[in-house]
């Protein structure tokens, strides 16, 4: 740090070091190796390092256990572990209830499960349509279309991993004629209207919805998550419904049906190709859970296959 003689401004000088590597022996306020949480605190530590005991890290990582996935990146600017529910220091500290030092970057905080969807077609989009679309990639708990900016909405997912998944697959897709923008919100939760206060139906609570695709542990839906595509996977089709019925249904929903095929060994499932990805997105929103009769509700998802 160098103070100038004319003003009290402090200027940070950054240069390349002659050192080729860093040798960190202690995890405390003066030094820290984020790849080695087992290092001792040493003298003069703040007590925060005690939160990084291996057992605490293992507990914080939950399903990841005490180890790491095969590929872990530690970006210089973020020091976070992609795909994990918590960054390494934040995870361990959260288990012990120890606050992180205020100087640590924001990426070490607990990831958010609330998404901000912007550039929406406010004349068409509804909380229900966003629930169905984002529900392809996780269980949506709440949706709020902003009252004063109806081309923006907040979507609260079940957890941060599902939020990241939905964001990665839906950011940039076309929805109702506009390019959808999806980012993480600064909000940690979507607030419901206070009792007695109406918001014109712009906020909906879907936390107990029967349409959640991932509420059952080990569900096969976890293995069939794909980016939006023009080919849709249809399932739960009753025997009485013919190919012509389904083609007519999707045509009436505004799509151009280009190809259709029942699964050879299971006529309860089929692939249907529409004219564009945007058409498929709109059709999925409108026809997922459509009543086909005989107590059968159509299940619609994006397919990795083509016809």
From TrEMBL:
SUPFAM superfamilies: RNA-binding domain, RBD
GO terms of biological process kind: mRNA processing
Coiled-coil annotated spans: none
Keywords for this protein: RNA-binding
Segments crossing the lipid bilayer: none
InterPro entries, A to Z: HnRNP-L/PTB, HNRNPL_RRM, Nucleotide-bd_a/b_plait_sf, RBD_domain_sf, RRM_dom
Domain RRM span(s) in chain numbering: 113-187, 230-305
Statement: the UniProt record of this protein carries the keyword Cell membrane: no
PROSITE patterns in UniProt: RRM (PS50102)
GO MF entries: RNA binding
Cellular component terms per the entry's GO annotation: nucleus
Matching PANTHER family: MATRIN 3/NUCLEAR PROTEIN 220-RELATED
NCBIfam families (UniProt xref): hnRNP-L_PTB (TIGR01649)
Protein name: Polypyrimidine tract binding protein 3
């Amino acid at each position: 740090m160098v103070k100038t003689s004319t003003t009290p401004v402090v200027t940070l000088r950054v240069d390349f070091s002659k050192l080729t590597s860093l040798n960190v022996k202690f995890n405390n306020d003066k030094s820290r190796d984020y790849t080695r949480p087992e290092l001792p605190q040493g003298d003069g530590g703040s007590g925060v390092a005690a939160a990084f005991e291996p057992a605490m890290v293992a507990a914080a990582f939950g399903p990841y256990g005490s180890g790491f996935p095969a590929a872990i990146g530690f970006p210089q600017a973020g020091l976070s572990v992609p795909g994990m529910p918590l960054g390494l220091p934040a995870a361990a500290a959260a288990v012990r209830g120890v606050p992180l030092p205020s100087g640590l970057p924001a990426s070490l905080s607990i990831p958010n499960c609330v998404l901000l969807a912007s550039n929406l077609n406010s004349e068409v989009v509804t909380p229900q349509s966003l629930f169905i679309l984002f529900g392809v990639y996780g269980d949506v708990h709440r949706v709020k279309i902003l009252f004063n900016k109806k081309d923006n909405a907040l979507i609260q997912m079940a957890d941060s991993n599902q939020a990241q998944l939905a964001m990665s697959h839906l950011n940039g897709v076309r929805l109702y004629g506009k390019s959808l923008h999806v980012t993480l919100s600064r909000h940690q939760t979507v607030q419901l209207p206070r009792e007695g206060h109406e918001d014109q139906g712009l906020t909906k609570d879907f936390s107990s919805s029967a349409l959640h695709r991932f509420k059952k542990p080990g569900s096969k839906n976890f293995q069939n998550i794909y980016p939006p595509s023009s080919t849709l996977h249809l399932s739960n089709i009753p025997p009485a419904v013919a190919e012509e019925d389904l083609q007519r249904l999707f045509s009436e929903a505004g799509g151009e049906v280009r190809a259709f095929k029942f699964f050879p060994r299971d006529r309860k499932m089929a692939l249907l190709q529409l004219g564009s990805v945007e058409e498929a997105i709109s059709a999925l929103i409108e026809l997922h859970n459509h009543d086909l009769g005989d107590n059968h509700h159509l299940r619609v998802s994006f397919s990795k296959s083509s016809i």
